[in-house]
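From the methods appendix. Each design record in this collection lists the tokenized structure first, followed by the designed amino acid sequence. Records were kept in a plain field format so they could be parsed without special tools. The example shown here is representative of the layout used throughout.

RECORD:
FOLD TOKENS (89 positions):
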């Protein structure tokens, strides 16, 4: 639903894929995680990084941390959305 282009320092949010303002903010939070990592000179494209970004989205949406079972679901979603990333944690 969005992407961070580190070469151009641009976050793109694909508005056609977000229906509500909350969904748009959720994407911005996710991509903001990648921006923060980039600015700190850290690796952005890893399984654990995508998992952390998805977890931050969850906290925004539900106003709480995910339970163990919800974390397992998030982990499975990252596996499905980013099959090229190997689990690194």
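DESIGN:
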């Amino acid at each position: 639903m969005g992407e961070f282009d580190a070469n151009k320092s641009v976050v793109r949010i694909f508005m056609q894929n977000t229906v509500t303002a909350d969904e748009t903010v959720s994407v911005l939070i996710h991509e903001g995680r990648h921006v923060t990592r980039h600015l700190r000179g850290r690796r952005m494209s890893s399984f654990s990084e995508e998992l952390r970004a998805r977890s931050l989205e969850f906290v925004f949406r539900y106003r709480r941390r995910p339970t163990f079972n919800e974390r397992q679901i998030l982990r499975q979603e990252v596996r499905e959305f980013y099959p090229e990333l190997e689990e690194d944690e």
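APPENDIX NOTE: The mean pLDDT is 93.
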